[in-house]
Amino acid sequence: MSYPIVGTPDAANTAWVMVSAALVLVMTPALAFFYGGMVRAKSVLNMMMMCMSAVGVVWVLWLLFGYSMAFGDDIGGVIGDPTQFAGLDGLFGGNYSAGDPAGASIPLVGTIPALVFVMFQAGFAMVTVALIAGAVADRMKFLAWLAFAALWATLVYFPVAHWVFAIDGLAAESGGWIANRLGAIDFAGGTAVEVNSGASALVLALIVGKRRGWPRDPMRPHNLPAVMLGAGLLWLGWFGFNAGSALAADGTAAMALVNTLGAGAVSLLSWLVVERIRHGKPTSFGAASGVVAGLVAITPSCASVTPIGAIAIGIVAGAVSSLAIELKYRLGYDDSLDVVGVHLVAGIVGTVMIGLVASSAAPAGVDGLFYGGGLDQLWRQIVAVLAVGAYAMVVTALIALALKKTIGVRAEPQDELDGIDDAEHAETAYDLAASRGGRLDI
């Protein structure tokens, strides 16, 4: 059989995945609000620009060769054929039958138009690139960020997406090694999105270096309502991210939908309990971070656990991530917006816990250790995490070091002090400096 197949799309499934694709695309501007509220006022536009620019950079690469690298026919188990769908060739055309949809005969992925799948997966790539930006807030040149985003998407995300998402017979003849040979479960991107971006964020933060004055000077979030708004929009988008990955309006999507709500809600509470015990007050910042930690953790596991399993994952993710964000002070790395503590750590939790709490009652049909499945699935999940994390860290280091030696990655010291918004974009988010009669320092 040749791929993509040609046939008539299922109307209900197509409608659902089109909505899901839009929800996933909203996640990148939602992340811009989430991250933008966390930084100081003098760098909020730069932070939001780093997120939003990922949409443009990734789409151009995705259109030209990225989709083909991710979902083209497998080459050696590690990459898709970059020429197979170059320019999205072969993914459109045929008989659209506008007057009679039942008579359409167009390229499909599963039961939906291939172009809908292209857009759905493009949103994953965009938000994964944008996630890394939070680790280097306040101090990275925008031009260097654009170059990094393009190189990282090409050399890290597209290959790893092939390993994890390219299932045999879904969009091409054969797919990547994690999904098809290892047998690890990653329904919507615990490794390809979360571990991948979190491990890369750690390396990039180390190479770019610490913010000036960190950790001595207070660098508190300047707009907590924006953080809460961003978290809420991310939660909304995550329903499309997870449930849309079923590629159908069916029972698998329903299970993913319920588990996405449950893990996010319980992780919020878990984070606040830890925060109350350790620091005396539950905070809005903690609530927003707890929601995201739970959503990260349920991403790989939403179709392999029951709603009770999702609660267990949410509890662990919220508590562990709440503790993990303080590691940067002990270990001395400046991960500005806790990409490592939330995305890497919760991504590991959610991926590995599949090997513990997966249930054959869920759509994936696999039992974890606690349901009598033994260690078989657990070791597969651990190998997937280690492989993706190691690959991401090595290649990210090579990219970042190459940019550091050529165009430079760090903003000028005075620009960091005065505000990177003005230095990089000739703009400020709030026109407060004149009314205060001095420099904007918040």
UniProtKB/TrEMBL annotation:
It comes from the Bacteria. Coiled coil: none annotated. It is a multi-pass membrane protein. The keyword Transmembrane applies. It is found in: Cell membrane; Membrane. Residues 15-430 form the Ammonium transporter AmtB-like domain. PROSITE patterns: AMMONIUM_TRANSP (PS01219). Pfam families: Ammonium_transp (PF00909). InterPro entries: Ammonium/urea_transptr, Ammonium_transpt, Ammonium_transpt_CS, NH4_transpt_AmtB-like_dom. Its main location: membrane. The keyword Cell membrane does not apply. One of its GO terms (molecular function) is ammonium channel activity. Keywords: Ammonia transport, Membrane, Transmembrane, Transmembrane helix, Transport. Belongs to the ammonia transporter channel (TC 1.A.11.2) family. PANTHER family: AMMONIUM TRANSPORTER MEP2. NCBIfam families: amt. This is Ammonium transporter. It comes from Williamsia herbipolensis. The lineage of its organism: Bacteria, Bacillati, Actinomycetota, Actinomycetes, Mycobacteriales.
